[in-house]
Amino acid sequence: MTHCNLKSDFNLITPHPPIAGLLSIFHEQELTETVHDTNGHGYLATFVGKHGRLVILRVHSRGLVTIDLQCYEEDNIAQLDNLLNALEKKLKVLLNGNITRIKKLPALVRGAKVDRYWPTADGRIVEYDIDQVVYDEDSDYQNIKILHSRQYGNILVLDGDVNLAESDFAYTQAITGNGRESYAGKEVLILGGGDGGILAELVKKKPKMITMIVHIDQKVIDGCKRHMRKTCGDILDNLKGDCYQILIEDCVPLLKKYVREGRMFDYVINDLTAIPISTAPEEDSMWEFLRLILDLSIQVLHPRGKYFTQGNSATLTEALSLYEEQLGKLSCPVDFRKEVVCVPSYLEQWVFYTAWKK
């Protein structure tokens, strides 16, 4: 059963608002009151009414009043919204202009069949206009979801992280050089890229050969070739074409094999993972994996080649700085540049890196 939460916050000049005047509104709605002991930290009461309605009234000792109204989706939301409006008007009258700020939030929906709330990389909660789960599979390595958004099209979500939407061509452009590169006749290595967007775009550039190593997980390809067609077209229908091959293997042994063989690529595009949010590289296994992939990738890069990868949210400056430190510790010295790109479905600015051998 779907549950809704409506919320209003009031910042007051006075730390002791007249509670009795507010309570009359709850009583008019036939809500039964229970006052809770806060050990001197303001006032806390809950009100229970028909249809499972629950109101939580909290008056904090420093003048903040919060009102949470919980109900089921089948309840009369408009009527409940009117209740919050009535409380707001009553407070204004009772406090005679001593309110410095009022903030009423839209309803939060819990327990819905389709989860619309997903975190950004910098820890904010975003509500998407998701109306359908089109693919939901657990592989041996991760949970794979593809969700439909009215605004962004189908969105690939891996273990709860928004990876790519059909609207996100800006991501594909950025991680392939934003149109500044010539791929004609070149050898290209893609690490990851299971959504097929990068491969589909680069095949159009007439490269000599693209080798794409999808790191282990076949089910990502299975979902994307059925439900992300606006991103990948038909490129994932076959694991091999005239100028590309898709390998579903652990990329680390394969990269080490390429190093031993002296194989070189004009472009290496790392689409495996974003930079870890953790700022303790010596303790985080993801940083260890990232350093290994980075070092091996540069070793198989042609002396005049370029290495492209995503970074992370532009607000995660400490993690980005740590990544740039790793670039300075590789077995082969590199220079790099970065640029910030707006990827539509991410709802935050995203950093991309280009590196090349000195």
UniProtKB/TrEMBL annotation:
Enzyme class: transferase
Gene3D superfamilies with a match to the protein in the record: Siroheme synthase, domain 2 (3.30.160.110), Spermidine synthase, tetramerisation domain (2.30.140.10), Vaccinia Virus protein VP39 (3.40.50.150)
Entry keywords, A to Z: Acetylation, Phosphoprotein, Polyamine biosynthesis, Transferase
Enzyme Commission number: 2.5.1.22
Catalytic machinery residues: D271 (proton acceptor)
Domain annotation PABS: ranges: 116-357
Catalytic activities: S-adenosyl 3-(methylsulfanyl)propylamine + spermidine = spermine + S-methyl-5'-thioadenosine + H(+)
Example GO biological process: spermine biosynthetic process
Molecular function, one GO term: spermine synthase activity
InterPro entries in the cross-refs: PABS (IPR030374), PABS_CS (IPR030373), SAM-dependent_MTases_sf (IPR029063), Spermidine_synt_N (IPR035246), Spermidine_synt_N_sf (IPR037163), Spermine_synthase_animal (IPR015576), SpmSyn_N (IPR040900)
Annotated metabolic or biological route of this protein: Amine and polyamine biosynthesis; spermine biosynthesis; spermine from spermidine: step 1/1
Assigned protein family: Belongs to the spermidine/spermine synthase family.
Subunit comment: Homodimer. Dimerization is mediated through the N-terminal domain and seems to be required for activity as deletion of the N-terminal domain causes complete loss of activity.
Entry protein name: Spermine synthase
Species of the source: Salarias fasciatus (Jewelled blenny)
Gene name, Swiss-Prot/TrEMBL: sms
